[in-house]
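> tool_call: predict_assembly(chains=two)
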Amino acid sequence: MRRWFYGAGATCRFELRRSFTVQRIAVSVVLALFPPMMLTLMIGATKVAQAAIDPLAKPGVVREIQLVQGFAPFAIVFLVSLVCLLSLLLWATPNVYSELEGKSWSFIASRPGGRISTYLGKFLASVLVSFGVALIALTLSVLIADLMLSTPDPERLWMSLTAIYFIACFVYGAIFSMLGTLFFRRSMVVAAGYLMGFEVILATVPAVIGKLTVRFHLQELGIRWIGFFLPFENQREYQILYGEPWPTWANLAMLMGAGLITLLIGAIVIVNRQYITSDET
Amino acid sequence: MIEIQQATKLYKTVIGVNDITLTIKPGTYGLLGPNGSGKTTLINLILGQLKPTLGSVRLFGENPWRRSGLLRRVGLCPASEVNFPGVTALEWVTYLVQLHGFSFSESGRRAKEALETVKLTYAMNRPMRDYSLGMRQRAKIAQAIAHEPELLILDEPFNGLDPIGRFEMTDFLRNWAAQGKSLILASHILYEVESVQPSFLLISGGRLLASGSPAEVREILADAPFTLNIRTSDAKKLVGLLIDLCQIESVQFESNESFQITTRAVGEVYQLLPRLLAEHNISVREISSTDDSLKALFSTLMKMHRGEWNRGGKS
């Protein structure tokens, strides 16, 4: 066990070191800047459009701005989630395939516990990088929303979403890492399919099955910690569809359980699977 | 050290290794076979990276598939090329030593020592993208020896090396063997492996065809039919003379000036040829062999294996 954790730390450190290239840094910067830029454009466009329609109709401007103000937390959550998941897709899913493709698998697999160390280390690196990207994107987005719209209680919004994104990075990172070991040749496609199928479509189904998705529990935490932010008319309407909220501990337990179980499944797969390298003769 | 009992490895319908039974005691071994013969598969079975479809493999008395801790006692230098453009050899070797469970500082110390052993200290802080093939090969050796294994396995270590690199590699391998440590050297080129004076394991088509000392292999080679291409001023006359004086198995004329002979007495042909050429005033423009020694050896072994040829030269 000690060897695994030493190895995982070493792998994480090496992964971060080797990714210190112009291309990889540029990708992370673009991902981190995308949400604040989109938010700026959205708020700016609303302001400009409203002013163009009736520059003197002050009450109308105030009403539209209030609408955008109310919508801002949802926009921030949507945009930052998008880049956070994209970053996890790029970092966590190719955990096995990148080693096989880079022909470095033999070097790793010929170490005692090398497979598990690499798996855990790469998971750790993907969580760190993706959380870093999400944190920068979130901080800038909250700042911009506050500067342009004077959103109420931005500190609470920032702190709540920071915690939610940390949990999201852990759980989704674990799921993507597991998919990377199971479907190593098409891991990114499978992970994207999982996101679309489960986390987008299934999570919107108002039934028990929808409550088995990660998004449902993250959403519940969001509603509790930052207030109702979803594009429904009101929270009552949402509750009629999706039922009464779960207790916080149950949401957290489901999320942690999902993360740990998928991480464990991936570890079992990577240890027991025979990955064939291209130079096998 | 290694016991393999009737091990077969199938990749779906393709046979990687076919019913190999083998015991390897501590020592120096050359695992010889043509490309695609199953050398890398056999190595991966020994290291527990692959599970035999049939049969069993034991490394240091235990099942390597179940006991990855055994890998602490083994160093592997795979044939594959490393491609970490921005990483230095010191960082890479340190990382791989850490995967053996050593602390960062201890791994760094061991990595530096190993890089010094392979004479790469001067370049260890340079990114590996700037390395020549020989330097990358030395870095690969360093990661295999840094944790001081009992058994070192090298897969095609001479690939792409220039003559100086080959000499240095041979020198290193001889020193390793001289320290009493075990070595398995996989290659498809006989003379490269011969230079380390190992016992041979000859594998082809996933089967172990033969194993033995260099003397035993040379004995098999001595009996092997050998093909010579000769381009001369008078092919017919020279062929007639050779048939009269040597044991020639077959002759094939390619033109009036060029022919191919197959003989088991190639030494005799080489001895006679200068005298015949001088006495009969025949000039030779070119003599070449279609077979390198390993090809001839494998061809002979395959015939023996199929029962087409017995030792002593009877077809």
